[in-house]
Amino acid sequence: MSATRGTRVLVLNSGSSSVKYQLLDMRDSSRLAVGLVERIGEETSRLKHTHVDSGATREWTGPIPDHEAALKAVSEELAKDGLGLDSPELAAIGHRVVHGGQSFTAPTVVDDAVLAEIERLIPVAPLHNPANLTGIRTAQALRPDLPQVAVFDTAFHTTMPESAARYAIDVATADEHRIRRYGFHGTSHAYVARATAELLGKDPSETNVIVLHLGNGASASAVRSGECVDTSMGLTPLEGLVMGTRSGDMDPAVIFHLARVGGMSIDEIDNLLNKKSGLIGLCGDNDMREIRRRVDEGDEQAELAFEIYIHRLKKYIGAYYAVLGTVDAIAFTAGVGENAAPVREAAVAGLETLGLAVDGDLNAVRSDEPRLISPSDARVKVAVVPTDEELEIATQTYGLVRKGD
Q: What amino acid positions are annotated as catalytic residues?
């Protein structure tokens, strides 16, 4: 790899019809620009770009036919601020890739073999990997001389022992079809586990943390000495906690029942479990703020949905406490975890014998900073740690390309 003298990293998160991006300066991990292109392929495509230093925001609406056009538009917006992709200060482009299977356990410089393996994994990530590939290939075309680094959502979870990663099905069948627990939200879990250790004044290698990433998608992980030993999502992001529109854990025979008795097709069941279940299936809302408003007004359907959500969350806290044996902290993160004080309070309520408690006053405080919300004498600390997946991707990307200098 050629020497890289720049200190900037562009982070790209390419979805099926969107591109989120951030430009960071890794000398101090500061953000220089952030933006979003959405509704790619439509006449009403939208680009929103913010130059962080000045605070100036520009918005543009019009047709953006594909990801190549989207990234060219991003490049033009960056150039207006003197931050163009042709800048010698740009060291690398870091890409979020959802599924790396068992092949990728760390950030990886993209070459033809890496692209081929990401493509081979499309059957287990049909909604995400194709878009991630498109983003990488488009960025390569724009800057073929620049290192493109793939950072995988699944990589942090590859440290799970086989006892946690394997499903109890026929081994030959599982191996043939690559069926195992992969886990997702890995960059968030990695960042939050490390940041929680720092908050406690401890080394990550000496810290056991249960991380609860609670957004519209939600997952839990058990992190022992800085390494993931279990996580709630599995072959796909459908397993585990109750989510905004996904069911989470469920008897697999429900699928057979819906097919045989309900006459539903596989695609209809897939749509039901991924898009019409979870909180939205239980009460018609997947926004926790709206659900809590309805609960406060005495809405029984919303109250039941909230109780089911919390019940599942408690089960995972207890299970991962047992897996770890000793727990230093539980960390809440992502949109719901960072902002919904009633969720944090309810999830920990009744677990005092495990050393868990929440201080009501501390829990009520809203802040963008990592903080403890447990009483000072709590045996197990409860933390709120805002996640920063873009910074984690940039840090891993920059670390890798500097290593090659």
A: 153
